Amino acid sequence: MDERTTSHHLRWLYWLLQALDLDKGSDEAAVPGLNRDDAYEREVLLPDCETQEAVASFLDFEVQAVDSLIEAKQKLLDLLTEKRRMLAAEAVMRGLDRSAPLRSSGIDWLGDIPARWEIERSRWLFTERDERSETGEEEMLTVSHITGVTPRSEKDVNMFEAETTAGYKLCFTGDLVINTLWAWMGAMGTASVDGIVSPAYNVYTPCPRLLPSYVDALVRIPVFAQEVTRYSKGVWSSRLRLYPEGFFETFWPVPPLDEQEEIVAHIAEERTKIDKLATATERSITLLKERRSALIAATVTGQIDIPEAA
Length: 310
Hints:
Elements: H1 3-20, H2 36-41, H3 49-94, E1 102-104, E2 112-114, E3 118-121, E4 126-129, E5 141-144, E6 148-151, E7 169-171, E8 176-178, E9 188-190, E10 195-197, E11 202-206, H4 212-219, H5 222-229, H6 244-247, E12 251-254, H7 257-300, H8 306-309
Antiparallel strand pairs: 1-2, 3-12, 4-11, 5-6, 7-10, 8-9, 8-11
Helix pairs in contact: 1-3, 1-7, 3-7
């Protein structure tokens, strides 16, 4: 058997092994991903060398085409994720009217802002809330850099739970909650429901000049997390903590309330469009992967006539 023939055999074997899907139910510690007993019992067709070569060549071409489509759609998902992130950043820092005159904010992370917006330190925009639960029976809330502030019951959390949550901090709808330890990652947001949070978190109530939904949009953009890092304390970057005295040093853009409402509505509307497109794209990727598997299985088992299909 010459080297060229061996190469064709190995290419055919590669596609055959993908079609067999031997990793289902594997309990082999020495060979993870392979169900050895199942592999021993399988029977496969063994076509002649010419057919093996045709099958391998056909699948090399067809599967590459499907993989290219999957890769392109995955890149689209990445672009949609970036667009979703940039959408909020541009809206809360620049507003929606691109023709509005700008002025320097004097703040590095903000740069130029609409001329009629104000700049204010957060110490004049927020008051710290440190009220404690007597029973701990309120809704437990968790804070993440991905989802913001959400009820713990809505998340699959396997972390240690305290025997009692009496003494946890009360948090009311519209309050800003900051995960003190993970603020540098962006773990903050406003609460959409009343509840309680860990005593290690900090809770702030925004003044009437700020809409809670605008606050939520602003604190969850990456550049704001980078800004609060400057005011956090700690030796290692992964152990930085944002305490109230640091948070109160930050500066905020304060648009008029009507603009805040427009900004929030715009972000919600555009995110809905992006999320619908992302969902459709994810579904198409799933279908393409299913088509890929079906194509491989049908081809190596002789269900497709290669010359006809080609």
